Amino acid sequence: MIKIIFVQCPVNLNADNMNNNISCPVDHVKVNENKIRVVALLVLLCALAYLGTGMQIIPVLLTIDFLLRSTGLEKYSVLASLAGIIANAANLKVKPVDRAPKRFAAWVGFVFMAAVCLVDILGMHTTAPVLATIVCVFAALESFVAFCAGCYVYHYGVKVLGILKNGN
User: Fold this and answer.
1) Is residue 11 part of a domain?
2) Does residue 33 lie within any of the structural domains?
3) What pTM was estimated for this model as a whole?
4) Which residues form the DUF4395 domain (predicted)?
5) 31 — phi, psi (to 5°)?
6) Which domain holds residue 146?
């Protein structure tokens, strides 16, 4: 059984080291941030390939890969395996970070890519690229500047749900 707790965590927002405390999921299991950044780069490249070609198989494969990584089955993820090989070959240092925000972000990626698949199948050929572009933006942020939107989505989602639940 995986136990997830929620804590206030300082998040580096920009180069000026401005910190905000936001709540984010924490499970005290460490993963390699540099490997995750390589995964994000691979997601970005795949999503760009979809945007450039319109090949519907690409979002399907990304959806499956996001699902595997968000449910703890990353050992079956092609992108995670390939990222491990690339990170080792590039001699990237291991930088431990908590796994829970990354898994939450993978779950959000799963939702977005599943939506891309659905709207693409439904023939909504304007909406699918917009959703895929959003995935590209967040994958690029994670890959290039180590910005994980998972904590922010979680934090503000909890706030909105709390307001809705409490009526405040």
Assistant:
1) no
2) yes
3) 0.80
4) 31-156
5) -130, 165
6) 29-158
